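B., you asked whether I could sanity-check this one before it goes into the benchmark set. Here's the sequence:
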Amino acid sequence: MRSRSNSGVRLDYYQRIVHRLILAHQEPVTGLFPASNVNSHAWIRDNVYCILAVWGLSMAYKKIADQDEDRAKCYELEQSCVKLMRGLLMAMMNQKDKVEKFKMTQSPYDSLHAKYSSKNGLPVVDDNEWGHLQIDAVSLYLLILAQMTASGLQIVFSLDEVSFIQNLVFYIESAYSIPDYGIWERGDKTNHGEPELNASSIGMAKAALEAMNELDLFGARGGPASVIHVLADEAHKCQAVLQSMLPRESNSKELDSGLLCVIGFPAFAVDDAQLIHNTKDAILSRLQGKYGCKRFLRDGYRTPKEDPSRLYYERWELRMFENIECEWPLFYCYLILFHAFQSDKRAVEEYASRLEKIMVRSEDGILLVPESYAVPQDLVGFEYQKPGSQVREVVGRCPFLWGQSLFILGRLLQEGFLAVGELDPLNRRLGAQKKPDVVVQVVIIAEDNEIRDKLAEHDLHVQTIAEVAPIEVQPARVLSHLYTYLGRNRKLGLSGRKSRDVGILSTSKLYSLKDRIFAFTPQHIDYEEYYTTRDPDLLASNFTTNLAFLTNNWRHMLGRPTITLMATHYMLGNYPK
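And here's what the prediction gave me:
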């Protein structure tokens, strides 16, 4: 038998750690991870983050799999990922009625649950007993599902599951206008139970929408029926709202360290490099401490001043939590990954060193990431007087699997077992890089032969609708109607997308449907929908605005945008009798 290489021995070490700290807690029936040994609730968000280390390790093994033993370990790790992702999928599919209802009501009480029983995947609390509406959690699931599928894992098995995933896309596509409870499940900072617009949720939804667009859930073995479709305009609306909010998290939270997962791994949701820099600097300047970062300012969770018997605080009462907020090592893990993707080795080493100093060493020498650090009760007065001066103590779970998983990912990157591209096969990390200028193509089609001949007199040679066959030209409302067929599934009781307006990004592409090719005219020139299109000056103004919009916002999409315009009698002032 051949001896193990140094890299193989080191990977075996990480495999033992992953098995002991993470996979040992995975439920054999559902594949879900309970919150702790005494709490069987499985949160969507935590579960997805927990499995990332397993996914990363499987890809590291795949690169050195020159022995049967390594190939077996790689396969086992991959199937653990599939088991978890399918466990969450089954739990959500059991609530398919909620997905259908939420598309109509967007009510917090009709949302998918944020957590399920790790034993059987069933709900564990009622609709009104928890802040279940957490768009970032569902979006994170879709984002990682897309990345894992792109890496070669087969997670979705049937077209019924494809239909459900398509409906999950419709579930999150309006994140830019849906207040939710956010990454910390509390909504408004005072914990009154009021949802609010959260930048972290909008950013994660934007990332998920872009990642899922045109993704074949069956991988290389799929066909047109297994491809997910996203209206590009919905992702852009999320981007517009996100960029207008950053670096602020929400109305009640000035900043939130949770934004690190939006500006960096795993979402990479911000395309503006300067905005990424400003957001990170704001978080570090106001939330970073010796033991990690605070979640947000005046966060009373697990502080000595917190009253467990109270559900909420008045806004003025939050002042007692100022300067004694818990600090979370988890965010050092995010910062390590952030700088690893930026290829900033010095910053990676700096945060790795900081993190190692605050980790807890187990009896057998394994470094554990604790959930958070709090100021001891008897030192609160001194901390008030001089913030950051007191030694803190571990509170909460240890190891904190969410943080432990990201820590292991960071180590695999630092030691060269993984390249950043392997954790991001969809290349989302390149979104902030400068891209070539966009050239917008404009196609003018004559309504009939009379219009064609009139334009020819002015040396504009165009074709009529009949002459551009086999391409069919339709108004935007037809595209909106076609999108309603996506995700329809009688067996699951899912109706697909509700017919709504479609924007210029969606109508500036050609579509293939079976053996037919469609081009769509922009919605703003639809005479049957908007009487204002009868005004030639307004029409010209809207057209130039759309050109500028496409030039600025097509950069992350493939190909060239193509605006299809119909030259009509009304445009030329020749009204037919």
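One thing to flag: Residues 441-567 form one domain. Otherwise nothing jumped out at me.
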